[in-house]
Design brief:
Layout (H helix, E strand, L loop, with lengths): L4 E3 L3 E3 L2 E3 L15 E3 L7 H13 L5 H15 L18 E7 L6 E8 L4 H11 L4 E3 H11 L9 H19 L1
Length: 177
C-alpha cells in the first residue's frame, strides 16, 4: 500500500544518518505526499528529491522517497557531515552509517562503519530486503554492498583530507608538549 505521508527523522552526528518511516499517520488526501525534513539549507534538496519521487510516480513507496532523499543528501554532502567527504577517523578514513525502517512492517536495515561505499542508505535498504540481518557493520557491510549493489570507491574528499591532516598536526603537537 502506498503511504501518503512520509515522515523522516534524520539524526546527523559525525556522518551518521538515521531514518525512520512512519506510514501510519492519517492524510487528508491519499494522493498528496508529504515529506518532512528536520533541517533547511542544503538538506532542502533531499526533501525536494523525495517529494518529486513520491509525487511523480504512482508506484513509488515511502521507502523509495526516503532512499532518494537520503541518497541526495549523501551525494550533495549536505552540511559536510553526511556522505562521502565526512569527518575522517584517526586513520584518515571516512566511514558511513545509515538506517532505514519500514513503518508498516517494522522491517529495518542498517549499516555501520561502511567503508569505500558512497550510497549508505541504499546499502541499508539492501540489507533490509535481501539479507536475514537487521544491521551489518565494517567489512561485512562493505562485502554485502559489493555483492548486491555497487563497486567500492573512495569516500575521501579534499576537505576531508585537510581535516584529517589538521587533526594529526594538533594531536602530534599535543604529544610533544
Amino acid at each position: 500500500m502506498r503511504s501518503a505521508v512520509v515522515a523522516t527523522i534524520c539524526t546527523v552526528l559525525l556522518g551518521v544518518t538515521t531514518v525512520a518511516v512512519n506510514a501510519k499517520l492519517p492524510a487528508p488526501n491519499p494522493n498528496f505526499p508529504i515529506v518532512v525534513n528536520t533541517w533547511s539549507g542544503t538538506f532542502s534538496n533531499a526533501t525536494a528529491a523525495a517529494y518529486k519521487v513520491l509525487s511523480e510516480s504512482a508506484s513509488a513507496t515511502a521507502l523509495d522517497g526516503i532512499e532518494v532523499g537520503c541518497s541526495t543528501c549523501e551525494r550533495d554532502q549536505c552540511d559536510g557531515s553526511v556522505g562521502y567527504g565526512g569527518s575522517p577517523d584517526e586513520t584518515a578514513e571516512t566511514t558511513l552509517d545509515s538506517m532505514i525502517m519500514d513503518g508498516e512492517t517494522g522491517d529495518v536495515g542498517a549499516v555501520g562503519d561502511l567503508r569505500r561505499v558512497r550510497n549508505a542508505i541504499g546499502v541499508a535498504r539492501h540489507v533490509m530486503h535481501y539479507t536475514d540481518h537487521t544491521m551489518l557493520a565494517g567489512d561485512s557491510a562493505t562485502n554485502v554492498c559489493v555483492c548486491l549493489c555497487t563497486s567500492p570507491s573512495s569516500l575521501l574528499s579534499a576537505v576531508c583530507s585537510a581535516v584529517y591532516h589538521e587533526l594529526r598536526q594538533t594531536l602530534n603537537a599535543a604529544l610533544i608538549d
